[in-house]
Amino acid sequence: MKRNRITTKAWLLLCGLVGVTDLLAQTNPGQLEITITDDKNGGPIACCIHLKDVKGKSVRAEKLPFFRDHFVCTGKIQLDLAPGNYSYEIERGPEYLMRTGTVTVAAATQNLALKLERLAEMAAEGWWSGDLHVHRPVDDIALLMQAEDLHMVPVMTWWNAKNEWSKRKPPAELLVQFDRNRFYQVMAGEDEREGGALLYFNLKEPLPIASATREYPPPMKFLKEARRHSDVWVDIEKPFWWDVPVWLASGQVDSVGLANNHMCRDQMYESEAWGKPRDKERLPPPRGNGFWTQEIYYHILNCGLRLPPSAGSASGVLPNPVGYDRVYVQVGPDLAYEKWWEGLRAGRSFVSNGPLLRCKANGHWPGHVFTAKSPLEIEVEAALATRDPISTIEIIKNGRVDSAVTFEEWKRTGKLGRLKFSESGWFLVRAIADNPKTFRFASTAPFYVEIGKRKRLISRESAQFFLDWVRERMGRIKLDDPKQREEVLGYHRMAEKFWQEKFESANAR
């Protein structure tokens, strides 16, 4: 006799152990239709969506860019989902308030229609944002930029031995402009090895770094080669990398990553990886790495070096959306690619991974150089928009907190106070959010003050800091080949001489 075969689920159903609705839920997914609009604009707007089920698993959207825990879309999307409860966080960069909540998906279509409310409209004020460290696929960049309301992205298409153009020709036009005022360039690259990482922008082709080992050839060889190209921009990706004193001494770098990818949306990378470690007792986790990054940057400025701060999220490698760490540059009402880089070089900028901090000093933007023959008084005012609570806004003068205004005090007046300079120096403004999980902050680029004949502050303490650093780095170099070792050490000896001369010419403590 032939036996009829029966599935396990059908058998359990017959036995009353599985309900009809439970069985249907497994075979008939529900649908969630999401529509996101601007509070001032009726149509859908591109956005970033973090959608998770009750177990905390992130939802992917078919054929849309997804990374780690989020996807981006044009503002209208329909998802097939297993019935159940889902939590969401929907955002569009720091200029919009985030929408959060939960939604229940059943067998029928569930509609979720939300408006995103603007917190600030930076482009209308002449501020244009960029993320200088993006490792996402070139074909996804336009939508990623729209979803995060970004305007400038150099796309990393070569990185150490990886080279996207090794098997296909790059496009004839490396710079892409869309939406009238959004730009991305597809030939950015990264040299990341034992000494740390340098980022290269605006080259016409990759540097020949694919066969480089951890220590050889030295990064300075490729840096010097890149400098043969007039438009190149070189960024120190983080201030605590071991070769930073050498790169600074070379005078061949253009910016340094103050808002960098160790600062993530929902966590901190608490160590310095293979960079110069901080004193963790003095600067404990989770936010100690953020303060260490700022301390090193202040030492740079205290040595008379005028490097603007930069920002990069490393989305595609570390768990950040594109544009989480970003730099805003004051360009004016009309954005042009070259004008943005000119503004960054001039330091008319601020970096942020949350708060939107626009400051003027005596009516001037950051990067301004005040000159005087006698002591000078400067009034600082600010505009600040933030999704996170902030207790105080600080003025940093010559590397130390000069004054702090509570958020409530600032709201009453818009003023941050007055600074007095009797000697040359610098100052900037920063606001650090009260976020216990990550270092969320904004910092202006420096303002500079020149009084009398002594144009720049050169701190003995800061010069010694880098002198000790370069000597420590020299002791860490491990190369068996004597010629290679000597070549690498040659750059460090030049840096040692540079910092020794800085120390000897110091004019401040």
Can you describe this structure in just a few lines?
The chain has helices spanning 8-14, 20-27, 141-148, 219-226, 244-250, 288-302, 337-346, 407-413, 460-476, 482-504; strands at 30-38, 41-44, 47-53, 66-67, 70-73, 76-81, 84-91, 99-105, 109-116, 127-130, 152-159, 162-163, 175-178, 182-193, 196-201, 233-236, 255-259, 309-311, 326-330, 349-352, 356-361, 369-372, 376-385, 390-397, 400-406, 415-421, 425-433, 441-444, 447-451. With 509 residues, the chain is of the alpha+beta class.
How would you characterize the overall build of this protein?
22% of the residues lie in helices and 34% in strands. The protein is built from ten helices and 29 strands. The chain has helices at residues 8-14, 20-27, 141-148, 219-226, 244-250, 288-302, 337-346, 407-413, 460-476, 482-504; strands spanning 30-38, 41-44, 47-53, 66-67, 70-73, 76-81, 84-91, 99-105, 109-116, 127-130, 152-159, 162-163, 175-178, 182-193, 196-201, 233-236, 255-259, 309-311, 326-330, 349-352, 356-361, 369-372, 376-385, 390-397, 400-406, 415-421, 425-433, 441-444, 447-451. Strand 11 (152-159) and strand 12 form a beta hairpin. It starts with 7 loop residues before the first helix and ends in a 5-residue tail after the last helix. Mean pLDDT is 94; it is low at 1-27.
The second-level CATH architecture of the largest domain is: Alpha-Beta Barrel
General form:
globular
Briefly note the CATH topology name of the largest domain.
Answer: TIM Barrel
Main sheet: strands, sense, barrel: 9 strands, mixed
Binned, the helix content reads: 10-25%
How would you classify the quaternary structure? single chain
